[in-house]
Every structure is written in structure tokens, then in C-alpha cells.
Design a protein that fits this description.
Shape: globular
Low-confidence stretches: none
Order of helices and strands: EHEHEHHEHEEH
Strand content: 15-25%
Length: about 160
């Protein structure tokens, strides 16, 4: 079985209006939400073998705060501009080219791409994909044969749901 975790970056800080979108940092709430997701994945023993992360600052920071929960070294993540620009077809091709010896991956990206990618891989309709939400998708096929609309959405977690 193959597992794909799709993580939308956490809430970004909009206080510096002159800042370029690519360079925007996380807001305080974003840091808290990323820590909440990290605790969730650690508690549920979600382990990953490969990370593809957008090269934008807020996605890197989101993964930095979540890497411990996934028990994945930050320095082993791949940071890709293709994940910033939001082309779901390119991301599906990236997934299809993953080495078959790997069974679980994490993709850290942006909306609307994470939302579209979840719906394109599964037959599920998601009303909203809030910041720092995590979709877990499974497939019984190889990466190269990853079917559209036939993968299973195993879980969809929003940080707000995890807070007491």
C-alpha cells in the first residue's frame, strides 16, 4: 500500500504587506497549528519516507514544525519550486516518478493545489482545505500507476478539530 500525506502550509503572517508572497512567514497561530499537527502525527505513528515541500518560506517553516512528528530529518526534504506554482498535473507526475521502494510520502504545499490534488486523487469532494490541514490518501497500486479518482481518502484532519 502507498500512502500520500498532503499538508497545506500553516497560517501565514500578513502584517508586512510589502513582503513578497513567496517570502511570507508563519503567523503565531500557524506555528501553533503546525505543532498541533506534529503532535497528532506523532501520536498516530504516521511515518514518512520522502518529503516534497514547496520552496516558499511558509511551507518550509510548516514542515520544520511538523518534521519531528513525522520523525523525518528536515535536511532530507526536497524543496521544489513546482510545488509553489500549483500545477496538479506536475505534482501527480512527481508522485508517479517516486521510487517504488518508498511506500509513504508527504507533500507540503499551497491551496488551491492541495485541495484539487486531494479531490483529483480520490473521489471525495472536500468543502474546504484550511491552513495546516492534513489529508491522508492511500492506494493499492504502484506510484507509476497511481489512479486518479480511485485512491482512498483515509483521513482529513484540521488543526481546529484537534484542539480541546
Amino acid at each position: 500500500m502507498k500512502q500520500i500525506f498532503l499538508l497545506r502550509h500553516a497560517k501565514s503572517d500578513w502584517n508586512n504587506l510589502g513582503e513578497q508572497d513567496f517570502d511570507r512567514s508563519l503567523a503565531k497561530r500557524g506555528i501553533q497549528d503546525a505543532s498541533t499537527i506534529s503532535n497528532y502525527v506523532k501520536k498516530n505513528n504516521h511515518l514518512i519516507e520522502k518529503v516534497l515541500c514547496s520552496s516558499a518560506k511558509r511551507t518550509k517553516q510548516t514542515f520544520d514544525y511538523c518534521s519531528d512528528g513525522f520523525n523525518f530529518p528536515i535536511e532530507n526534504a526536497e524543496y521544489l519550486d513546482d510545488l509553489y506554482f500549483g500545477d496538479t498535473d506536475k505534482i501527480i507526475r512527481l508522485i508517479q516518478n517516486i521510487n517504488e521502494s518508498i511506500s509513504s510520502i508527504l507533500i507540503v504545499g499551497h491551496n488551491p493545489t492541495m485541495h484539487s490534488l486531494t479531490e483529483n486523487l480520490t473521489k471525495e469532494t472536500i468543502k474546504k482545505f484550511p491552513t495546516c490541514s492534513l489529508a491522508e490518501i492511500t492506494s493499492e497500486t504502484s506510484w507509476k500507476d497511481l489512479p486518479l479518482k480511485k485512491c482512498k481518502l483515509k483521513s482529513f484532519i484540521k488543526p481546529k478539530e484537534l484542539k480541546s
